[in-house]
Amino acid sequence: MATNYKKRSTQRSTNGLSSAKTARLVAPPYPSRTSSSSSAHQASPNTNHVLGTIGVSIYAAKSLGDVVFVELPALDLEVTAGDTMGAVESVKSASDILTPVSGKIIEANDVLQEKPGTINKSPEGEGWIARIQVKDAGEVEKLMGMDEYAKFTAE
């Protein structure tokens, strides 16, 4: 499963991480009605809709420390790339979760309400925050790939 990360941001969260180092978009880790895929997303053959999963990166999960609370986005929330869609609070800090792409929130991970630490255990797996129906597939193509993100977080 390929991961793409938000490319640019100057906004900083309260823990000093830029949103580019926290938000990420991954291919849905669940069966869906999608058939053609690229390294960043899967597109439905019938509708041209791109689906994505938003959460925090492994890098951000380690930097946050133990997550104690997650504010999930509302279903059907329309967002623009860079909008705040939720928040993550840990024993060390609180960070806004910014959407890496524009679209509509179609699902939130309710497990995080009862078990916010799931983000620490599996940030790029079971610890996902929301699923999004991407408005513009071109935005996905502009996100960093894993190698570029690794270099970015090493800085």
Describe the structure.
The chain is globular, with a radius of gyration of 14 Å. Strand 4 (42-43) and strand 5 (50-56) form a beta hairpin. The protein starts with a strand and ends with a helix. The strands form two sheets. Strands 1, 2, 3, 4, 5, 7, 10 and 11 form an eight-stranded antiparallel sheet that branches. A three-stranded antiparallel sheet has the order 6-8-9. It is α+β, with helices and mostly antiparallel strands and 155 residues long. The chain contains five helices and eleven strands; from the N terminus they run βββββαβββββααβαα. 41% of the residues are buried.
Fold topology:
Layout: E1 3-5, E2 23-26, E3 36-37, E4 42-43, E5 50-56, H1 58-64, E6 67-71, E7 78-79, E8 84-90, E9 94-98, E10 103-108, H2 111-114, H3 118-121, E11 130-134, H4 137-141, H5 146-154
Antiparallel strand pairs: 1-2, 2-5, 3-4, 4-5, 5-11, 6-8, 7-10, 8-9, 10-11
Name the features:
alpha+beta, three-stranded antiparallel sheet, eight-stranded antiparallel sheet, single chain, 5 helices, about 160 residues
Write a brief caption for the model.
The protein is α+β, with helices and mostly antiparallel strands and 155 residues long. 19% of the residues lie in helices and 31% in strands.
Mean pLDDT: 76
Helix-strand string: EEEEEHEEEEEHHEHH
Shape: globular
Largest sheet: 8 strands, antiparallel
Low-confidence stretches: 5-22, 26-47
Helix content: 10-25%
Q: Based on the structure, what is the oligomeric state of the protein chains?
A: single chain
The secondary-structure class comes to alpha+beta
Question: Distance between the terminal alpha carbons, to the nearest Å?
Answer: 25 Å
Counting DSSP E segments of at least 2 residues, the number of strands comes to 11
Radius of gyration: 14 Å
Strand percentage: 25-35%
Number of H/I helices: 5
